[in-house]
Structure formats: C-alpha cells, structure tokens
Amino acid sequence: MLVPSLRLQDLIEEIRGAKTQAQEREVIQKECAHIRASFRDGDPLHRHRQLAKLLYVHMLGYPAHFGQMECLKLIASPRFTDKRVGYLGAMLLLDERQDAHLLITNSIKNDLSQGTQAVQGLALCTLSTMGSAEMCRDLATEVEKLLLQPSPYVRKKAVLTAVHMIRKVPELSTIFLPPCAQLLRERHHGILMGTITLIMELSERSPAALKHFRKVVPQLVQILRTLLTTGYSTEHSISGVSDPFLQVRILRLLRILGRNHEESSETMNDLLAQVATNTDTSRNAGNAVLFETVLTIMDIRSAAGLRVLAVNILGRFLLNSDKNIRYVALTSLLRLVQSDHSAVQRHRPTVVECLREPDASLSRRALELSLALVNSSNVRAMMQELQGFLQSCPADLRADCASGILLAAERFAPSMRWHIDTILRVLTTAGAHVRDDAVANLTQLIGGAQELHAYSVRRLYCALAEDISQQPLVQVAAWCIGEYGDLLLEGSCEEIEPLQVEEEEVLALLERVLQSHMSLPATRGYALTALMKLSTRLRGDNNRIRQVVSIYGSCLDVELQQRAVEYDVLFRKYDHMRAAILEKMPLVERGGPQVDEEAKESKEETRLLEAAPVPTEPQASKLLDLLDLLDGPSGDAQHPRPLDPSPGGPLVQLLDLPGASPPPAPIPDLKVFEREGLQLNLSFVRPPGTPILLLITVTATNTSGDDVTHFICQAAVPKSFQLQLQAPSGDTVPAQGGLPVTQLLRILNPNKAPLRLKLRLTYNHFGQSVQEIFEVNNLPVETWQ
User: What segment(s) does the record annotate as region Disordered (predicted)?
Assistant: First the structure.
C-alpha cells in the first residue's frame, strides 16, 4: 500500500528525528518519490507544497534538479502562493549555467509590468539573484520604469536590480544615468543606500558616467553634512554615530569621484576635515567612519594638512586595544609610507612597539612597515630595534626580517665597517634564514674594503670559533680565513682587542668544520678551499693540509671529491705554480649589479657554453677551473673548446680590433607583463661570437604608489634549450618609478628552434601576495634565427 505524502512540517520533523544518516536518506528518497509522482500527475493545487518540500531537501544538500521545470510552471501561475514558491525555487535551483533560466524571462517581464507590488518585488529579487546578461539586456527598460514608481518598496528593489545589471552588462549604464539624480533626493534610507551603490558601480565602469556624476559632488557633500549635524533617523544610528553605514557608503563614492580631480577634491576637503575631527572614536562604528575618511583623504587630491591629519588618525588607531583596528592602521600606513613618508615617520616609535605583538599578523605588518621607515637618518636606531626583534621573532618571520635588514643595510649603510658588522650580526643570529645571495654579497663587500680585511677576518674567526652551526656564517668565515689568513696571524689590527692566533688553531678550526655533521657539502667545499689557500699563506709545514686534502679525494660528494683531487694534483705535479694560482682575489669594486654582470659577460664570454658554476662555491666563478689550467700539452683530460666562428676569435671582440665582425642589429625590447603599476620588460642580446647564446635582461619597474616586495621571477624553457638564471639585483621594486630590478637569463639554443618562455612572478603589493604564471610566445624572430 502506497504511503501518503508528508506535509512540509511533518517531513522536517521526521528528517530531524532520524538517528542515522541512512535513515535520513531513506526518508528523503521516499518523499522524493512522492514528489516526482505528484509532478507527473500534474496536481496544480498542491504543486507549490511539493516544491516547498523539494526546496528543503535541496537545502540539505540532496539533488533537486527535477524540480526546475515546476518552478517555471508556478511562476506562470496567476496565484500569489504559487508565484512566491516558484520564484524562491528559481533563485535556489536555477542559475546562468542552465538554459531553463531563460524560459522565465517573459514571466518576469509580465510580472514587472502588470503585477502587484508584492509580485514585482518577487520578480526583481529573482532577477537580481540569478539574472544572466541576456536577461538583463531584455529587461533593462522594465527595471528603469520601476525606478520612478511611487512605491518605495518597489523602487528600492529596482535600484538593487539595476546594480546587478550594471555588474553583468556595463554597457547598460546609459539607461540608468538619468534616474540617479532624482533618486539622490530621496529620504527613504534603503533607496538612498541603493542609489549611492548604483552610482559607484556606474562611475567605476564608465568614464562618461564618472564625468557626469562629478557634478553631484556638492549634493553628496550636503547629504553627508546633514548626517553629521542633524542625523538621518534615530533608528539607523549606532552607538551615537548617525547612520554609519550611509556615511561609509557616501565616503566611498566621494573617493571615487574625487580621485585625480582637483575641483571635486577641493569641494569635499572641508567636509572631510569635519568628519575626521567630530566623529566619536570610542565605538567601533565611529572607527569605521574614520577609517573610510582616511582612505578618502589619501585617494583624492586633498590638502597637505588634511593628509597629515589622516596619518595622525591612523597613528591613534595603533594605540587602540582592538587588534583588528591596529592591523588596519598598519596596513594603511604601509600604503602611505611612500607618498607621506615624513608624516608616517612621526609614529615610528609606536610602529616599533607593535613588533612585540604576540599576534603573528600584527607583528608581520609591523615588520614590513618598520623596514619601509628605515632611511639614512634613522638607520642605526632602526637596525638596533630590528636586530633585537630578529632574536626573538617567530621562525616564520625570521627569513623576512633578516632579508629586510640586509637590504636596508645595503641601501643606507653609513660606513663600510657598520655594514659588515650588521651583516655579521644577522648571520650570527639567523644565518639559516638569510637569502642565498647573502654569502656572495658579504664576500664581495669584504673583498672591496681593503682597509677592513684584517678587522673582518678577526671578527669572522671569533664568530666561527663560537658557533659553527650557522652555515652562511661558516661559509663567509672560511672564505675570509682562506683569503686573509696571513692578516689573522699577524695580529696587526688596531680596531679590536689584540688576538693571538696560532697556525695550528686555524687549521684545527677548519678541520672541525669539515668533520662537523652540521656542515653542508657547500660549506665543506668552502673549508677545503680555505685550507688549500692557507697552504700559501702560512709559514709552517703543509703536510697537515695535504693529508686533509688527500682524505677528501675519496669523498662521496662528487663536487668535494673533484676539488680535493684537483688540489692534490696541484700539490704533486704543479707545486711550483701553486702560489700563483692561489693568490688573493683582486679587489672588487662595488658597482651596480648590472655593471657586474656586463663585466663578467665580457671576461667569460668563451666559457658561456660550459656548465653553469656550482652555486655552492661562488668564488669558483672568479677562478679558472684548475683542471683546465693544468691540463696543457700533457692533457690528462680533454675538454671540448667552444666554437668561435668569427675571425680573430674572442680576443678580437674583446679588444675591438679592426678584424672584428660588425655588431648585429639590435633586437627590439618586449613588454610581457603589466599590472597595478608593475611592468616587466625583456631586452635581448646575442653575442657575435656565440650565435646559439641569447642573453635576456628582465627589467621590473614600478610606477604605483607602493613598493613591490619579495619580488621573485622564475623562468622555464623547453627541454631542447638550456637556461641559466643569474641572481636578481634585488627583491624590492621601489614605488614611483624608482630604481628597477634586473635579472639576467642566459639561454643556449643549439638547434635554433623557436623560443617559448614561461615566467612565474611572485611578489607582495599593496599588502597582498600575488602570483602570476604566463607564457611568452611572441618573442622577436631575431632571438632564435
């Protein structure tokens, strides 16, 4: 016997009374079968009851697609009870992905033009919820007529539907422009809120609408001034603040209309000052209005005194006990630090205090703002605060903090010694969290400061004797001891306390590094090379060094084994050349990264076809490979020489002699990326001596008002190519068209195949983390033919 169908209330009680999910499914399956049978029988009187039960089942997550056509039938019914459930079902069961939603267009059109207020409201709600672009185009004129209906209920819903239509089809803006001026004079709260939202959408999507609505700025100013003085209505006031929701909405619209427009900005300056000074900050509603006022002041062309007032408001927010308000203040100040640096600097002590916040998000924002506040006048004090924070900050912030300190020290260092001391403190405190290029940068810095060689080697030796766990510190110390070990033993440095160091102590320390389980293979390579260099710096017997070198000739690490074998050959066969080969590195002139790259390119052009230098030993890129140097006529190993098709060879090209071939025509630059002021350009060079080599310089520039931080550019090419990425010149692209960040890509194309390049950019901009992946297929033909 067929069980009768349940009422909606009984169905809800039975589903809630199910003790297991299986019982619930059983109840729902039985009731869905009854609903299907009822739909097939075509019972018009109870169709809306069956659909109501189906909608409840749909809300529980069970399939209810078979009720879509029933929604259309109920919408077409003349009874209000049917229309109400039918429109509700359409909003829940239909969307743009189903073609069935287009079938209700005519029903909605009829209800909008001929229905009662309640039916018009149902139709407008449905259209604003699931109306597609086609429906919006068909029904725009009907909605426009309802905007001027005498009923506030219908006008409010018509305005919200117009907002949805503009978002779906921006070209409909011309239809809704004329009614907005009349709607702004409304006293009904809902209509006014909806009208301001509609004007915002129109202004953001249409330059013509933006120009049109700038004429109503005085009217908006008057509405907001009335809110401040007399209030709108007591029922919309919150904690003594008159209608904060309407105030915030008007301020957002003023921000859009006053952006890059002098006359509009001048009109609203006095009002913004009044809002900023008279709003109560003891309640959250007042803080919301104040924050929106600050954003408006900063986005328009406001007076200088008004901008200082806005920064001071954010400074007061930093003293608030609410963490959310402090976070908002830090984020906003970070955006303003480039345009209003001096005003933000006044709140530097408060920002530094926020570094000690236990909340991770607050301390991260405070760290970013503190780094942005560093300049040449406060670099010493700020570095002390940041280094203190580095010692106690959470592990997930140490990398960002260490990287920021190193970049700030490089940019604003008052002296070379201070710069070296700062980097050493960072390496000692958080050596494991520094960037990969920190070792190379410090070795270059020390190498270029001849007067500080003795000071640096003694500081590094003492630091290494205390702790060998920080691998970057150990690598720099090993390099420095190897280069300037003679200065360490002389004890001639007057800048620090006298330190007597014996040769055996130095050798024992390096052997300890080699034997430590904490040492990475790269670190052992640094220590082994340092021992080898000390063989020419020390006055004692080299037997101990030769024994250590021979031991590592059978090391499991291939790179370390290769170096040990080369050094052993140098001892046995070419001892007369050892002193010349292992002499001190020449002084490095501190120039821009681009200058260094060009110098390396001209000096090592004949080696570009060889494998890239091992990144674990940066000094290897500045020395000739020992086996290549030693294997002359006797030639234990044969290495293929790079092809040089040009007459005269690379020497002619380097010296620019008359025999050199004329330079090729320049390859045009290519812009491959642009977003929110960040732009990426590619420039190309093909060296005449190596036609299969392409040098691509990636240049990142930033014209926005906020720095692009943590900028990383990664590239990939097809397998038939060989790609080598050089280290970038930095990871921060300064705002307002500051010094660009450059990175060199070297691509070998032996088959001269068409080049395809995939780039991945990751960076932080305006307080948000961004990742972009795109492919460059439109490279000039000259790059590969």
Answer: 592-615
Residue-wise pLDDT tens digits, 293-313: 999 999 888 888 899 999 999
Residue written as token pair 């529980």 = 60
Residue 697's nearest CA partner among 728, 720, 675, 666 is 728
Is the CB of residue 238 less than 8 Å from the CB of residue 248?
no
Complete DSSP assignment for 435-493 = -TTHHHHHHHHHHH-GGGHHHHHHHHHHHHHH----HHHHHHHHHHHHHHHHHHHHT--
Instruction: Return the pLDDT at 496.
Output: 59
> pLDDT per residue over 383-433, tens digit each?
999 999 998 888 888 889 998 999 999 889 999 999 999 999 998 888 788
Element spanning 751, H or E: none
Q: What is the DSSP string of 552-621?
A: GGG-SSHHHHHHHHHHHHHHHT-GGGHHHHTPPPPPPP---HHHHHHHHHHHSGGGTTSPPPPTT-GGGG
**Residues 458/499, Cβ–Cβ less than 8 Å:** yes
Quick: pLDDT tens for 552-562. Answer: 888 888 888 99
In whole angstroms, what is the distance from residue 108 CA to residue 69 CA?
A: 15
Tokens of 185: 């004079």
Alpha helices, H only, 346-452: 348-353, 360-373, 379-392, 395-412, 416-430, 438-448
Neighbours of 20 (CB within 10 A): 8
| Residues counted in the chain | 785
Query: Is residue 535 within 8 Å of 578, Cβ to Cβ?
Result: yes
Cα(27)–Cα(18) distance, rounded to whole angstroms? Answer: 8
Could you give the CA distance from residue 765 to residue 334 in angstroms, rounded to a whole number? 10
The helix-helix angle for 416-430 and 453-466 (nearest 10°) equals: 10
**Measured between alpha carbons, how far is 337 from 365 in angstroms, rounded to an integer?**
13
Q: What is the mean pLDDT of residues 133-142?
A: 91
Distances (CA, A) of 763 to 63, 366, 400, 759: 42, 18, 13, 13
Burial 186-209 (b: 16+ CB within 10 A, else e): beebebbbbbbbbbbbbbebbeeb
Cα–Cα distance, 449 to 395 (Å, whole number) = 33
Whole-angstrom distance, CA of residue 28 vs CA of residue 10: 12
Structure tokens that stand for 162 in this block: 């117009």
C-alpha 47: how far from its chain's center? 54
CB 629 within 8 A of CB 581: yes
Q: pLDDT class for 157, splitting at 50, 70, 90?
A: very high
Name the one residue in this structure whose structure tokens are 């007032």: 309
